[in-house]
Amino acid sequence: MKTFFNISREENKIVEGIIGRMSLKDKIGQLLFLKQDEEEFSFTPGGVMFRPQPEEKLRGRIRDNNNKMGIKPFISANLESGPRGMISDSIEGVTPLQVAATGDPLNAYRLGEISGGVARGAGANMAFSPIVDININIDNPMVATRGFGSEADEIIEYGKSEFEGFLKNEVIPVVKHFPGDGVSSTDQHLLTAVNDLEPEEWRTTYGRIYRELIASGAEVIMVGHISLPRYVSEFDSSKANYPASLSEVVIKKLLKEELGYEGLIITDSTHMAGYTSFHSRREAIITSLNAGVDMILFSRDPNEDFKYIEEAYRSGEISIESIDEKVRRIISLKVKHNILDREEAASSNRRELAEEGRKTFTKITDASITLFKDEQKLLPLKLEGKKVLVIPITRTKNIRDSEVEYFSELLKKEGAKVTVKNYRDEDSDEGEDLKMSVEEFVNRYDLVIYLVNVKVLSNRTSLRMEYNAFNGVDAPWFVNEVDTMLISLSSPFHDRDAPMIKTVINGYNDTEVTMDKIVEKLRGRSPFKGKDPFRKRRQDV
What we know:
Keywords: Glycosidase, Hydrolase. The chain has 541 residues and is α/β, with parallel strands linked by helices. Helix 6 links the parallel strand 4 and strand 5 (172-173).
C-alpha cells in the first residue's frame, strides 16, 4: 500500500486503521473542504475554512466542531497578510508586498511565524498561504499586494521563508495558486483566468518557483481556476482552456509527473465562476476529482455536493480506489501533523504573542514605506497652517471610508487645515468646483493629496484609479498650479495612472500603522526605507 508524506510505519498503521473503520459517507466527507458561517454539517468534512470573526466565538466553534466530528478537520484561513484573516479582533498585519518592499526575506518568515502562531492559538492547523504568484501583468486585479512582486528568484526566497514561518508554529502552509496567477488581466472569481506563457517560459518562472517549494517540503498545493493553454495544447488542444482545477494534463502530467509532486491537492474556492465556465457544477466536481484533485474547496450546498460524489461512485464515474487514495493522503497528513489527537492550543501566552507580533509588524511597516519619486523636492512637508485638499480614490462598497477619515485626522493633528472632497457623495459640489477659477483654487489650497486605496477584492476587475466627478473635476488638472502628491495604500502602479504627479508614495496597506508611518515620513521625522519591489522590471521596461 502506497504511503504519503514519509510517515513512519507506526503512523501508517494508524492511517490504515482509521481508513478501515470509515464508511463511504466518512470517506466522501473527507473530500470536501467547507466554509463555516453559522450552519451545521450533516457529515464530517475533511476541512473547514473560517472567515474573520472574534476570537472567542471562533475558539468556541472550533471546539464544538472537534467535539462533534469523529475525524478532526483541517482548520484553515487566509493568513497571507496576518492573523486578521481569521481573527477579526486580532492585530493588524502586513501584506506580502509590504514584506517584499523591506528587502528582507526574514520578514516573510516573521509574517508566517506570527500569523501562524496567533491563529494556532485560536485553533488553526492550516493556512492558505504563501501566495507565490508572479505579478507579470500590472493590470492583473488579484495579485498586487497579495504577492511578493515580479521576480521569480525573490518570490522563491520570500515564499520559502513564509512557508517555514508557518511550520514553526505547527500550521500547515498551502502554496497557491498553481499553475500561477498574475499573467492575465482577469479575475477567476468572474471567469477562468489565463496563464498563456509558452511552456519553456513557464518552466523558468512559475515552474521554477513550484519546484523550489516542492523541494522544500510543500505538502499542500492549491490549484486555481487558471488555464495553461499553451502547455495543455501540446497534449489535448480540445481542453486547452479548461482551468487547472479541472485539467488532468495540468495536475497529473505537469504537477505530478513533471514536477514530481505527491502531496495533497485542493481546489481554490469552487464558488468562483471561473470554476464552472465549461461544466455544470456536478460535472466540474467529478472532473476535478478524476483529474487528480483530493479536496474540493467550498460548496453552495454541502449536501448537494456530497450527493454528486456519492452518485458518481454508484454509477462508476469515480472508483473506490481513487476515493481511498485521496482519503489516505488526507488522513496521512493529519496523522503526520498530529491533527487527529491535537489538544486545544494553550492560550495563556496568546496576548504576549500578539503583542510581540504587533511590534514586529510595526517594524516591518516602517521599513516598507516607499518614496517612489519626489521630482519636485516637496518633502519633508511643513503642515502647520497649510490648507490641504484630500481627494480620496477608494472604490469601496460603502460611502464611508474609514482610512480617509483616519488619515485626515492625522493631518489635522499636524496642524493642517484639511478639506476632503469625495465626489462619490450625491451632494458633492462638483458642478460648482467645475466653475472655480484657477486663482480661487490656488488661494483655497496649498497642497493636494490623492489618497488612493483601490484594494484587491473578489470580483474587482481593475485596480486602476477611477475619478468620480463630471468633466474630470477631481483629476489632477492643477499639478502645475498647486503642490500635488499621491499616496497609495494599495496598488504600487498608480504612478502610471497619474504620471503628471511628481511625488508618489507607496504604502502597500491601509492599516492605521501604515498611515501613521507615512505621516511620520512626510514630516521628515523618520526616513523612507522601502524599496520598490518592481524596480528590476521597471528598469527592464
